[in-house]
């Protein structure tokens, strides 16, 4: 029974520390801000990104077609 009491106390302490610890909050905010910046950049440069991807996939398709025919 003593073992169960010690485990219960340890669990309560760890749970309390988990809810009081705020170190991860700063990391979460930073990640959300970075995702927001990435989305904003994607919206602003949408046409340029579409053109680049179209060009890249066109080049890949041409090269693949040439490799198959040769």
Account of the protein in words:
The structure is a single chain. The protein is an all-alpha fold. The chain has a domain of 47 residues. 93% of the residues lie in helices and 0% in strands. It is built from three helices and no strands. It is elongated and about 80 Å long. The model has no long low-confidence stretch (mean pLDDT 86).
Describe the structure in brief.
The chain has 70 residues and is mainly α. The chain contains three helices and no strands. The longest helix is centred in the last third of the chain and has 24 residues, at 46-69.
Features:
70 residues; mainly alpha; elongated
| CA radius of gyration | 27 Å
Counting helices, strands and paired strands, the structural category is mainly alpha
Sum up the overall morphology in one term: elongated
Largest sheet geometry:
none
What is the straight-line distance between the termini? 78 Å
How large a portion of the residues is in β-strands, by DSSP E? under 5%
Low-confidence stretches: none
Discrete helix count: 3
What is the strand tally? 0
Mean pLDDT: 86
């Amino acid at each position: 029974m003593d073992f169960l009491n010690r485990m219960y106390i340890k669990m309560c302490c760890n749970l309390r520390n988990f809810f009081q610890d705020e170190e991860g909050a700063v990391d979460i905010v930073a990640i959300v801000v970075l995702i927001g910046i990435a989305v904003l950049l994607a919206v602003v440069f949408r046409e340029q990104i579409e053109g680049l991807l179209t060009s890249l996939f066109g080049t890949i398709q041409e090269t693949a077609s040439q490799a198959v025919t040769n």
